[in-house]
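Re: the request from the purification team.
They wanted to know what the chain is likely to look like in 3D before they choose a buffer screen. I agreed to run a prediction and write the result into the notebook, where they can find it.
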Amino acid sequence: MVETALRMQNAGAGEILLTNIDRDGTWAGYDLELIHLVADAVSVPVVACGGAGGIADCGRAVREAKASAAAAGSMFVFQKQGCGVLIRYPDYDDIRRHLG
């Protein structure tokens, strides 16, 4: 994966959206080790994707694994796994507590 990210950067990519498809939709958290490896290897921003179960996971991806940003889907669309609802968002205090 690191080699692919380096090839993408060398081909002119301005950022890398790094998705672990095995974790996508699982709410198990991001693959922090993979994110860290790729973020250390490239000079362009790395956006973590795949596995977020809560706003704290996004914070860990940025603070611990050095992602430039974190993308999420399921945690906004489902109240819990298997229970789809209209889109919901974390409140401002949660964002500040985990990302600020």
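For the purification team: The first strand starts at residue 16 and ends at 19.
Please add any questions underneath this entry.
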